[in-house]
Amino acid sequence: MISTQARVSKINTVVIPVQDQDRVIEFYTEKLGFEKRTDIPFGNGYRWVEVAPADAETTIALAPPPEGKPSGNRETGIGLHTPDIDTYHAELNEAGVDVDPEISRMGDPVPPLFWLRDPEGNSLMVVG
Questions:
Q1: What is the pLDDT of residues 4-20, one digit of tens each?
Q2: Which residues constitute the domain of residue 116?
Q3: Residue 1 lies inside a defined structural domain of this protein
Q4: What would the pLDDT profile of 89-114 be if each residue is shown by its tens digit?
C-alpha cells in the first residue's frame, strides 16, 4: 500500500529532446510567447533550458537527447490551453508556425483543438 504522507503534488517539468536548442528556444519564446525560465550549463558542454507560459507552474525543458538517442518528430503529449483559440490559431498561422489548417470542433466533451509543430517536428496540442 502507498503511503498517503508522501505524494506527488504537481507536474514540474516535461522534457522535449531537441538538437538545435537556440532555434527551438527562439520558436517557443518568439512564436509561442513563452518565457525562458532557466538556461544553465550542465554535464559535458550541455545546456538545461526551461520555457513556460508566463503564469504556468509546469515548464518544458528543451534539452539535448541522451547520447545515441534521436530527437525531433515526436508527439509530445503536451496540451496547451488558450482562452481564445481562434485568435491564437490565426496569430500562429500568420507568424508562419506549422499549425493544422483548421481548428477541430468535435463537440462536447472534446474542446476545440488544433496541433502545432515546432521547428524539429515535435507536436503539441492547443485546446480552447
A1: 677 888 999 999 999 99
A2: 13-65+72-127
A3: no
A4: 999 999 999 999 999 999 999 999 99
Query: What is the CA angle 69-71-72, rounded to 5?
Result: 160
Give the CA distances from residue 124 to residues 8, 31, 117, 128, in Å, rounded to whole numbers and listed in that order.
24, 14, 6, 13
We report the CATH number of the domain holding residue 18 as 3.10.180.10
**Number of domains the chain is built from:** 1
**Which residue's entry shows cell 504537481?**
10
**112 falls within a domain:** yes
Q: Lay out the sheet containing 75-81: strands in order across.
A: 75-81, 123-127, 113-117, 98-99
Residue 82 burial (CB count, 10 A): 16
Cα dihedral 124→85→20→15 (10° resolution): -40
The neighbouring-strand residues paired with 46 are 42
